Amino acid sequence: MKTAAPFTRPVTGSLRVATALFPFLAAMAVVAGIHHKVADRLTDPLATHFDIRGKADGFTSVQGFLTGTLLILVLLGAGSAVFVGRKRPAPAARWVIGTGWGIAATVALPTSLTLLANAHADRAESARLPLWELAAVLAAGVAAGALGWLLAGPEPRPQPPRPGAAPRLALGAGERAGWTRTVGSPLLSAVGLLTVCGGLFLGITADWFTGGVLLASGAAVGAVTSVRVTVDRRGLALAPALLPYAFRRVPFDRVAEATSRNVHIATEFGGWGYRVRHNRSGLVLRSGEGLVLRLHSGREFVVTVDDAATAAALFNTYLDRARPSRGD
């Protein structure tokens, strides 16, 4: 069975930076080209906002309209290129590129249609932009985003550590040890409290069905705002800090190796809390040091917690003890 190639270069090289920049440069070229073609037929100010019937109801100067559009494209393009061109591997780079392609299309196409609508009208007030054209713009934006995502290519994955390469905690044959830490998130605590308060308010003033949904949601958030992480002879356990019952256990027979590393929750998980992604899942309440369990399925289970290296070493020690009983 082949393993993923290690990081031999940054996740994003010059080709990927060019892929990130291309849609914004193309969008600016399209807008500038159409403006050049119809400039002599444009009135000033332009009709730049249209109601649901397609009639003009907002107007902007030609210079202001073009400058604002081009400035948006320049800033978004530069930001996208800087993000995907960082030396630090960025697991979200593919999604940033795809989103950039979609945004570039949904900025350039309405701008171009607006210029053409004004060019075909004898005055700005008579310009029309049918609603179906805006719907077509959204569809084109989704298609452009999908194309950008495909062109960005899959993210390289780091090579898993060799079996036995991760640290072990020295324990005698008959010795046992346990490790536990509590990790919390003030942000999630605030969100959970506000949600519960909102549920109580709606239950009292409106109806208890909607209020009950919010109460349940707030309770679910609150359950993972402060979590006790434990590694012992039974494996890994996650339990609410105020309750003795674990809501998640990972036994040894599911794990190939335990390691620790820095975790970047925004790029790797896209948010805080209990997260599930296509190749990893776990409890991530902050960025920083984290315990990483490499599962036999090829996925990772991640918990951001202090002193994760000690937790990984103890887990591997117990994992070595458990292997003979499984016939490994």
From the structure above, extract its key features:
11 strands, five-stranded mixed beta sheet, 2 domains, disordered N terminus, single chain, 19% strand, 328 residues, PH-domain like, four-stranded antiparallel beta sheet, alpha+beta
Written overview of the protein:
Helix content is 48%, strand content 19%. It is α+β, with helices and mostly antiparallel strands and 328 residues long. It is built from eight helices and eleven strands. It folds into two domains: 139 residues; 109 residues, Pleckstrin-homology domain (PH domain)/Phosphotyrosine-binding domain (PTB) (PH-domain like, Roll), CATH 2.30.29. A hairpin with a 3-residue loop joins strand 8 and strand 9. The strands form three sheets. It has a five-stranded mixed β-sheet, covered by helices on one side. Helix 1 runs parallel beside helix 3, helix 3 runs antiparallel to helix 4 and helix 5 packs antiparallel against helix 6.
Sum this structure up briefly:
By secondary structure, the protein is α+β, with helices and mostly antiparallel strands.
Query: Judging from the principal axes of the Cα atoms, what is the shape?
Result: elongated
**H/E order of the elements?**
HEEHHHEHHEEEEHEEEEH
What is the count of β-strands?
11
Distance between the termini: 17 Å
Extract low-pLDDT stretches: 1-12
Largest sheet: 5 strands, mixed
Overall pLDDT level: 80
Strand content: 15-25%
Give the total of domains: 2
Query: What's the alpha carbon Rg, rounded to whole Å?
Result: 27 Å
How is the largest sheet built, in terms of strand order? 7-10-11-9-8
Helix content: 40-55%
- What structural class do you assign from the helix and strand content? alpha+beta
